Amino acid sequence: MKIFKKSRPRGSSVLTLRLWDFTGTSMLTLGIWILLIIFLSPLSYMVITSLKSSDEFRDRTAPLLPAQRLTYTYNGKKCDMYQVPTPDGKVHQWALVEAKRQSSKFIDPAHPEAGLIDWQGSWRALTGVYRYRIYWNNYPALWSAVNYPRYLKNSAIIVVIGEIGILLSSIAVAYGFSRFRIPGGKFLFFLLIATIVIPDSITLVPTFYIFSKVFHWWGTFYPLIVPAFFGSAIYIFLLRQNFKSIPRDLDEAAMLDGAGPLRTLVSIIIPQAIPAIVTVGLLYFFNTWNELRMSSLYLGIAPDKQTMAFTGIGGGGIGFTPETLQASAVILMAVPLLVLFLSQRFFMKDMVVTAIEK
Amino acid sequence: MISVKRAVLPRAKNTGAKKHLSLRKYEATVGFLFLLPWLLGFILLKAVPIFTALGFSFTNFQMLRPEQTHFIGLHNYLTFLKDQAAGASLFGSLSYFILSVPIEMLLAMFLAAVFCSERLKGKRIMRTLFFMPSIIPAVAIFLVIFGLIDPRSGWINRLIITPLHLSSSLPLNNLFPIILSLWTIGPGFLIMLAAMQSIPRELYEAARVDGAGPINRFVSITMPLASPAIFFSLVINMISSFGGVALLDRGLAYNQSISPMEGYINYQMFSRSDLGYASALAWVMFIVVMAITILLFRTTRYWVHFPEERTDEDF
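YS: structure for the whole thing
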């Protein structure tokens, strides 16, 4: 389109071109922002519900946004306020004192001295009077009901030790795959790729039996931490792709200077691959933080060892109501979201799987 | 010190074949040592369990009565053929795969292509926001979706169905897998985006000069050059649709899996403690997933342009 405009002999001035450019840019950007808002809209349900009280959540006539139902205390009794239409066409905000099927007694809070007003009609058809306000109490209530420091500590133990294990092993194996001629190396690499697609279910039966009955690791962190020290096929694959894109001249120069393989890895490869290593570390972090399948299997019987993800299914507290569960999901999400936004500069930046060798 | 490889190789050649051989041996040994953690993990955590599961699948192994285990041949597999619930769960898993993977792939590819445009502003924050749902725990997604589709208080009921007087028997429960798969596009999107952004601009300029329109450029430049990334994200999405962990976790608790087949295996294993039958089911699923994988890899020769892997000779 641009070319067509440019190649026109005369006419389209710089101004119209710019205008065209500006329109295209803003239309595209606006369109994608709208798509983004639709894409993320279900999250608003979570946030908004977490800011409602239990009564508001259960009240089906309440507005969608957090709103409190207004009440009026009459003779020591709390009465709900309603929008009451009267035959003269006016709508009054009255409090319902005595509810009956055919007629009800209301009181006008503005003039309580006028006494009860009889009103003909079904009070159930009336809408309530609401005032928008945010109910923060779910969060402090959760904080005092759920032992968050303990869940955080358990998650931190698993994430930190697992992170050390997964990075050490995956970096070493990726280095082995990317820089050494090993007899049968191609076959081993093929096995690595095949490992990525092996479903968990097939290994679950024997590993669960061995971990729980042979090692007696049921209810401990070991089944969640130990496998990390053997590396993860998909991380090894990603790191190997990245290591391959680092020019070999660099490690050859280092080796000429007398550096051994380990030294070359530490001083040449790792500094060059920091974005990829950070990405793998972050992926492992998100994964472990959210992971509930294995932890519910092995830690379900050990309430004091459970991780943050358990708070999302109402672990550690009794009598979770829908709105407090939503609040707990918000708390559960908060840490990975914070980490994602802080690391957006690095995250997945060097993960190029392409047809063009760098 | 061997791994001095290329730079010193000419000299190494002069010093005789014997030394060259020992150098290669040294290199292989060191390389093998680096592979050792994964190799051990592969044997201990993958190969041995897989074949142990095959062994279990021919027995009536019960978790609570391991001493009564004996060989029952193909009985578990014959049970599977007659078990309607198992067949339904396999069908459910396959249809979830067929339903979710194209949605994920198309949306992720569309987004990646749009994000390559220079006209789009504020890319960094939008990229993070589009990725964001992928790191929301599946537990939280579960709560959101079931809150939305709740037949009484759910927002879909209050905002769409009641005002428009739609029938209340809409299959709203299907929304969970759909939104879950839409919210899993993150890794695939970023992998495809990285691949598309690494395509040299000059190629597009040249094609533009030759008169290729945007769609033509996408089909004949972007798609082939990004095809390894597209294929990689296809594999990732396939794994997570079968309940596996690929890059990011999408699992609920072990007893409420998203993939029906996996859920049924876990039910047999933990609720009925029937490890023998669970192993047989797991093997069926393993064979199905492997067959799909092999099929996918077979198709790659028609559409994926793998980079030229440097062979041993080039080292």
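YS: worth flagging: Residues 1-45 of chain B form one domain.
IM: good catch. Also Chain B touches chain A through 124 residues (CB under 8 Å).
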